[in-house]
Specification:
14 strands, two-stranded antiparallel ribbon, binds beta-D-ribofuranose, IUNH, 12 helices, binds calcium ion, glycosidase, alpha/beta, Inosine/uridine_hydrolase_dom
Amino acid sequence: KRKIILDVDTGSDDAVAIMSAVLSPDLQLEAVCSVAGNKDIDKTTENTLRVIQLLGADVPVYRGCREPLVKFLCPDRLPKRGASKPVLKDGKEVQMHADYLDIPAAVIREQAISAPEFYVQYLRAAKEPVTIVAVGPLTNVAMALLLDNSILNKIEEIVVMGGGYNITNTSPSAEFNIWYDPEAAQRVFHCGAKVTIVPLDATHAACVTLEDCARFRALGTVSGNFAAELCEQRITVHDDSQPLAVPHAAAVHDAVCVAYLIDPSVLKDVRHVHCDVGFRDFCEGQTILDPRYYTEEKNCYFAFDGDRFKFVDILCDLFARDKKA
Ligand code: BDR
Ligand code: CA
């Protein structure tokens, strides 16, 4: 089994990623770390605990950073963030990420140490390399490397949901996770570990349709039902705000990273590239790929496409394994 640590800002698609990782027989989920992003750190931590509890999983949760790195140090650099616009479904307002996931409040609690401290303690002691799957802003991972860079020896791969080449979702040039903490992203992209970037180009291609949601629900499991509910909500918001090439479909970004670890062919057209992050003005949070491949060191694998049929089949297999009905 491949050991992984998930880093999340739960978040509706993070919730699907967590459930997928918990249910996978190929992955051993060692811990889940929360980070501020989609919502503040209290909410992303509570939502993460709710999902773990819903599945009855025995996985420790560590609370992570509450602010992006440089923006914490220099508050005047906090960008003006437009709140995501709620849309109406059956007369009710829906957003891509509700403040709190609509499942029972967490009774289980997070661990005593913070996420960056956990990374350092855990990786120093690890006997074999571990994969980090970071599907929120990269603040915790950068902070852990700042605390102790030698943990790199214990990292097999860092799989990042973030960025975009032809697609953006937060500004004309940026995807949300990278835009939220661009300095952390740049540090992680250049840390020297194997970094695989799963950008919007891949996650929009590997989308989930209303028919796929019906398949999830037909499994009759807790995870299948909850995933169907979350994805349907995401489809409503996508249809209104950023329709995909496939009609009535949604990107479930974060879960694509977990699916990739189960079957790498979920990602298509993966190229070894040089990738930097823009910091200023129009480029803030942009993933900038260098086409001058012959002059620059390649630091990341970047997926330009995804396979939605494989992705949905993997999710169905995972949700079918859920013992909870
Ligand atoms: C990413 O941003 C978040 O809103 C999602 O959870 C995903 O990780 C997509 O841009
Ligand atoms: Ca996320």
